[in-house]
Specification:
The chain is of the alpha+beta class. It is built from one helix and five strands. The structure holds zinc ion.
Length: 84
Amino acid sequence: MTAQRTYRGVTCIRCGQPISVSAQVVSLHNEIAHRLENLPHSFSVRCQMCEQESVYEIKDIRRFDGQPPIRLTKARYGPPIVFS
Ligand SMILES: [Zn+2]
């Protein structure tokens, strides 16, 4: 195993953190790179750090070094569980 890991992603417009994109978006990026121009050029993705969902263009995708940010698990939905 090599420590040289990279991933494709975009930079969050809100907090500036890298957002990894799905394999589907990466394959779209690769297809557009091969001049298949009749494909959608934008996609929406949610930042895992600040949870801002925005629309990005395929051309905004760049390669980041390291590993994608880990999703923070937060109990956002439903009332808190209270033990009494
Ligand atoms: Zn963000």
